[in-house]
Design goal:
Blueprint lengths: L1 E3 L26 E2 L10 E3 L7 H6 L37 E3 L2 E16 L2 E8 L8 E4 L3 E8 L8 E3 L20 E2 L2 E3 L5 E6 L6 H6 L4 E6 L3 H5 L8 E8 L12 H4 L8 E3 L2 E2 L5 E5 L3 E8 L5 E6 L5 E6 L2 E9 L1 E4 L4 E7 L4 E8 L8 E10 L24 E9 L5 E3 L11 E6 L3 E8 L5 E5 L4 E6 L11 E2 L1 E4 L4 E7 L10 E5 L2 H5 L3 E7 L2
Parallel strand pairs: 1-28, 5-8, 7-13, 14-18, 17-25, 26-29, 28-36
Antiparallel strand pairs: 2-10, 3-25, 4-5, 5-6, 8-10, 8-11, 9-12, 12-13, 14-15, 15-16, 18-23, 19-22, 19-24, 20-21, 20-23, 24-25, 26-27, 29-34, 30-33, 30-35, 31-32, 31-34, 35-36
Length: 527
Amino acid sequence: MTHTTEPASGAERPSRGAHARIGRDGTDGHSKEPKGAGGKGLHRRKFLGGMAGAAGLAAVGAAGATFSLLTGGNSNKAAAADATGTLHIPDLLEGTASGGTTTYTLTAKTGTNEVISGVTSTTAGYNGSYLGPTMKWTKGDTVLLNITNTLGDETSVHFHGAHIPPKMDGGPQNAFADGVTWSPTFEILDEAKTLWYHPHALGTTAEQVVHGLAGMIIVEDDSDVSAALPGEYGVDDIPIILQCLAADSSGDIKYNVAGYLGAGLSYPVLCNGTNVDSTTLGFTATKKRTRFRVLNASPADIMTVQRGDGGTLTQIATDQGYLAEATEVTTIRLVAGARAEFVLDLEDAVTLQAVVTTGWIRGGSGTYDFLTVTPNASDTPADLPSSLNTITRYDTSSFTARTITLGQGTGGTMTINGSAGTTMAGMAMISTTLDAEEVWTIKNSTQLEHSFHLHDVPYQVIEINGAAPTGVDLGWFDTFEVVGGGSIKIAMKFTDFTDDTYMYMLHCHLLQHEDEGMMASLMVTDG
């Protein structure tokens, strides 16, 4: 393992432990054997046959191992596709409360879904055939998750954006074998925000996520602001999981360079598991104000959400919680892994669009009318709170500075600080201490798009290509865009959790880049 124990220089850039895999014996103390085993819209689509430059092709690696669902799945039929064109709302997973702990049960399993309309694809999901149920966590509660793996290959489950101990974070060190139940437990310290969960084992993250292993987490709190915002799940608080995938005419979903360079591909766009290439889904709003939580669960492509009539969205949150105040925006740009929340106060129907931008060597492109929201309500909502959150901007003058360089290696690998993180021993490791305050310059030495994600703690964006952030970029994040040749500067404080064996991860959330090595580890110790 390459250790970076001393911080590197934090100069500005003037432009815009052991890998403890969990086996069937569950020796880490947290695993156990299972007890038993609508209308049409304008859809302008461009199928890209080109690549994001020669450098883009050089940056991607060979195909990884294929887990068992690609050669045969179970007979579970997908429930996501709704022939009526009505927006499918993922089930809300009910927990069981006992002794001060709420327990949730998830099973990662194989199934089928129509990723391309009319064509059955072999897929995977949690508690179903594609995607997973939404979980609601409440700040201050203790949760226990019993997660059983029936995929036929090892997996892990990462709670993306959650501030939890590294032993419970679901990174590569928490990978667990087929037939095993992993049971992490932790207190919810996060305030109200939108998180998500997905696999994070070494080398198989893209494959497992694109086949459907992803779900949303809603964190609630008892603040006055939360009480004043829409919060009835499926009624005025609506999850939106957007994906742009790659598949051939037989429905085989692609995830690596060999697949993406194949002939005859299409790049289907899905909303909550339903293909919206030629169908605009519908949702009837029974309250005049509706809250939407949007997750870009694509492996690589960028999703920009906007109104079809050019009107504004009232954005209230970024990845890591509420903005300082509700902000009127015309577009919300989400790189892979990012989330945002907005509200609409409607008198008339509005169509929401997703503008897809290719993020990898190939991908989707175009504008999709994915959802028409039709009001059928007579209530009069109160004014939104004038203040949503108090965000004190960091004074980074005394923060420890580091430079994190996103690069390309040899043989199609991607790197962080010169090391390809395809194994725990091979990746760079950042060492820090509890309560450390740090400012990182994330430098993109490639001409490729990257989406920088940090586990453990939220960060503030201090600079974007040398310029100070404005507007919604002054919120809290865990995932942020780093354009080719560009840089961002981010600041964070490492609080609450330490471990001398288990580590957090920092990586590109373009999942192919992650699998090809653009990942490093972060160890937080007592000092």
